[in-house]
Amino acid sequence: MNKLKLNWEVALLLILVAEILLFGAINPRMLDVNMLLFSTSDFICIGIVALPLTLVIISGGIDISLGSTIGLCAIALGVMLQAGMPISLAVILTLAVGLLCGLFNAALIHYTGISPLVITLGTLYLFGGAALLLSGMAGATGYEGIGSFPDTFTNFANLTLFGLPIPLVMFAVITLLFWLLTHRARFGRHIFLIGQNPRAARYAALPVNGSLYGVYGMVGLASAIAAIVLVSYFGSARSDLGRDLLMPALTAAVLGGANIYGGSGSILGTALAALLVGYLQQGLQMAGVPNQVSSALSGALLIVVVIGRSVSLHRDYLQTTWRRLRGHKKLTGV
Amino acid sequence: MKKLLRNRELSALLAIVALFAVLVALNHSYFSLQTLSMIFTSAQILILLAVGATMVMLTRNIDVSVGSTVGLCAIAVGVALNSGYGLPAAMLFALLIGAIAGFFNGVLVVWLRIPAIVATLGTLGLYRGGMLLWTGGKWIEGLPASLKALSEPVAIGVSPLGFLVLIVVAIAAWMLARTAFGRDFYAVGDNLAAARQLGVAVNRTRLLAFTFNGMLAAIAGIIFASQIGFVPNQTGSGLEMKAIAACVLGGISLLGGTGTVIGAFLGAFFLTQIDTVLVLFKLPAWWNDFIAGLVLLGVLVLDGRLRQALARHQRAQKYSRFVPPLPGAKNVRQFPRKKKDVA
């Protein structure tokens, strides 16, 4: 199993390199190292939220409310900055809002015992609605949002560290932390067992509910971080900032090898897949493909890759089905 | 109270009536059939999607791509009409596109064994992109009046398409509740292996569930084009979550095998009613999602707690005979032995 997963990560890396080379062949500007590094700021938030999402998926859950959480955090941050709060305090409070959103999800799942998909569907509306409410009350107009922040804040996302953009550095640090947490710490092993078999985990006296709060809280926290980066990068806080992040983040987690039914997944795979998805969007844009078509292509990429994995997983089943279909042509008329 | 909460259709109906009562209490002029038919008009799209989602969810799958399917089919009917085809041909074309889109989802899930949420997540992007590719990102405008006429009221404030929706709901409700074919959906969702052992064509049933869902989304797309009169780029985006939310409100379980079409209908109606009531109260639009979320979560928490209590009760009953009797109790019955159990 370990070997297979390693192979998958290597395969992802190869696909990533091939993708960059392919786009480089179309538009040589893509191969510029600076270009490669600094274009990550456009999409790195996908990766920041995809990492904890992977943990949630490994634990057998899912969180579809994270887009709304990002929106809510962004608006909260905007309102606080507009009210003249010091930046450090506003950032800390934003992180607290995100954490609370995540813990609220976990509490509801714990309290009701309903599937996380349904609960987070409810909070998707609740948090999204709260974000709209907040921005409406703050008098922000729909698409412009809250703007005109202090320069020290808006410059933050454009700073560099050792010649690398700050968001990318943050992503690398977060990836490392999550890799340690998931693959090298006891907490991660617990999450894997909980995803494989919650009942067995309970009998083994693992803190099942505590881990639940842990993973959803981390998603909330990461959403808040993503919100801060996005607001700083775009220079304005809107309630719909995170709406387009959920699907790519899920795509990255699934492409990275997470089993949507729980029990397996890889942080490194998710990180690579996030870059893959991001560079796909970026590269298509640079190749002159309209923005909308790239959504089709990322959807197609997801399907193709997942088909490939599914075929390799269910090889026997597909072979017998194929033989049966060829044997009895009538059966095809479903 | 318990019975009320267990019967989700009834509680959804009561919620609708209560909300209507609140509306009427605050402004008597809204007490009319017209208000109801107005809500129904704006609920039609969601109702169709909820019925489609019901079929898919009954088989223990989920389809998050319907929003894009709606958009794709709205484009299909618009393009066909604008290039000179007749109304029936255009609608059939849209239906066909919807059926293909749904069938493709089904193929991914059933034949290629991809988890439904992953597969439909992929097709969500794929269909949306396909739609934008088809139109080149432009809106479809200038739809003929014959299409728009279909959504003008003919009797009791309901349009021809509205009647079509009612008929579709009735047929779906009848099929799922009364026919052996419809019961297969429940069997497949409740226990796939057992359904197969009983001779249910599990693959065909699941494929058909997705295909029907696509066709219902196509009708929803046609209604959208007819009601709005043009087809913007973002047609249908976000509807997939709303349809699932409506189903959950109406008592359809994501774990498959439970729920009725009537429940989905009422759930969709209730969700739309919230929006409409807020508009009638002249509350700013930004309250909509917040209140919808609150209601949804409220229902879920109640429902979840009730279900947990019920499960505990059943468990207690099941194991009560193993609990050692109180010391000194008289007339202690022996643990009943059933020889049949061995077989």
UniProtKB/TrEMBL annotation, chain B:
The chain crosses the membrane at residues 12-31, 37-58, 65-85, 91-112, 154-177, 207-231, 243-271, 283-302. Signal peptide: none annotated. InterPro entries: ABC_transp_permease (IPR001851). It is a multi-pass membrane protein. Its main location: membrane. Keywords: Cell inner membrane, Cell membrane, Membrane, Transmembrane, Transmembrane helix, Transport. CDD domains: TM_PBP1_transp_AraH_like. It is found in: Cell inner membrane. Belongs to the binding-protein-dependent transport system permease family. AraH/RbsC subfamily. Part of the ABC transporter complex LsrABCD involved in autoinducer 2 (AI-2) import. Probably responsible for the translocation of the substrate across the membrane. The complex is composed of two ATP-binding proteins (LsrA), two transmembrane proteins (LsrC and LsrD) and a solute-binding protein (LsrB). This is Autoinducer 2 import system permease protein LsrC. It comes from Buttiauxella ferragutiae ATCC 51602.
